[in-house]
Amino acid sequence: MEADDPHLQSFHRCLQKSRRILCIVGSGLSASSGIPTYQLQHGTWHGYTALDLATPEAFQNDPGLVWLFYSSRRYEAMKAKPNEGHFALAELCRRYPSRMATFPPSTGGKGLSGDESSKQYKHHDINGPPVSGGVSDTTFKGKSALVISQNVDGLHQRAGHPQNSLVELHGSLFDMKCTQFFCNYRTHNEHDLFLTPTLRTYTPRSSMKKRKRNLAKNSRLEKSPPPKRQRVDSDASVTDETTDLENVSHSSDDLSESTNSSQPDAFPTLDPQELPHCPKCHEGILRPAVVWFGESLPLRQMDQVDQFFSCGPPVDLVLVIGTSGKVWPAMGYVERVKKNGGKIAIFNTAIEDIEEVNKSKNVWGFQGDASKLLPEALKPLIGEHYKPRDWFRR
After folding, report:
1. Residue 126: is its pLDDT beyond 80?
2. Closest alpha carbon to 29 in 321, 241, 282, 273
3. Do the strands 317-321 and 286-290 form a parallel or antiparallel pair, or are they unpaired?
4. Binding residue positions for Zn(2+)
5. Phi, psi at residue 5, to the nearest 5°?
6. DSSP tag of 384
7. What is the C-alpha separation between 8 and 365, in angstroms, rounded?
8. Cα–Cα distance, 219 to 208 (Å, whole number)
9. In a 10 Å sphere around its CB, with 0-12 CB exposed, 13-18 middle and 19+ buried, how is residue 379 labelled?
10. DSSP label at 200?
11. Burial class (CB in 10 A: 0-12, 13-18, 19+), 356
């Protein structure tokens, strides 16, 4: 992407004029951090399918297997590093905060009950201290940006993304909640590498070198166009349901092991007492606070996005990053912006009919590595020095 590219210059003019910017982020952005995109519906993890790993029924039948899967994902996410795209989005939202409510704020690993969490629900006015109640139109005097992430890997937070300008639509690998019916305990940003001694012993670990070596190969495969009649997103299901597994991240060595055998790998049956337990009720097993198949998207996150649309001026620009944006609810948000006269910019490794897309005055398509494209595309707003001083430690 050259600075004198007329296509880029046209987008820069739109970016500078826009007042309300919505960013929809998919797994393509995390791929540049060494977390390959993969659809569990089209394959397996060590021979196990989505129904074995990511449904409430699977957790009830074999919580140990499910926890081994998510412990492996947590391990991979913590070994990965935020990339330039994460830092660029974080700087965008630091300079132009969404001024929306926080549901709920990060607690640095401290557990909150549902009541305690709701007490911290506040609106942040950029012109003054947090206030309760509605958001005044006088709040929206300048630009504002909100990031909706379909990823669960926690890389946005590690890049320093402001909490009140980030909606994790599918939850987070590092948030947990109690499965006991009458217990409302939740914990946020729990970044212990392994949560119990048993998980430390039995969690499958991947080689980071092997993962990075195969990442280039995986990205080349992702760039190849899909069959004409097959409408499959780079990070999403072919169905209308959206879950955490639309953006499942697997190591390349895990995939090679699982696809070479029709039989699932044999993992030990873990005793429920060896799994993470609720410190509040002392009875329930904790589960990852992510959206599983058969579960609805969290209302709080949906409400936060709706609030961004309904309060203040219309959203006039949507950035679709590392995803095609063709699966609900991402598609609904894109259509909502388009219906209100807003414009669209797509940053993805593969863009369908990119030549036709770029002929439109209201749509820009930037094909390639989103982590490299975003800093250049957002430069008029974030400048050249957008990374924090300690970025290499994150």
Report:
1. no
2. 321
3. unpaired
4. 178, 183, 278, 281
5. -65, 120
6. S
7. 10
8. 16
9. middle
10. H
11. exposed
Model pLDDT, residue 119? 40
Best-predicted range by mean pLDDT among 92-101, 200-209, 311-320, 354-363? Answer: 311-320
Q: Percentages helix, strand, coil for the chain, rounded to the nearest 5?
A: 40, 15, 45
Give catalytic residue positions.
170
Beta strands across the sheet bearing 166-168: 166-168, 144-149, 20-25, 317-321, 343-348, 363-367
Which residues have a Cβ under 8 Å from the Cβ of 204 and sit 6 or more positions away?
Answer: 46, 68, 72, 254
Q: Which of 316, 314, 325 is nearest to 347 (CA)?
A: 325
Q: Which residues contact 112 (CB under 8 A, 6 or more apart)?
A: 104, 120, 185, 186, 187, 188
Q: How far apart are CA 48 and CA 51, in angstroms?
A: 8
Q: Which domains does the chain have, with CATH numbers?
A: 6-393 (3.40.50.1220)
* C-alpha dist (Å) from residue 139 to 2, 130, 265, 337, 357: 36, 12, 55, 21, 35
- Nearest-angstrom CA–CA distance, 348 and 324: 7
The larger pLDDT score, comparing residue 295 to residue 120, is at 295
Full-prediction pTM beyond 0.90? no
Contact between 286 and 174 (Cβ < 8 Å): no
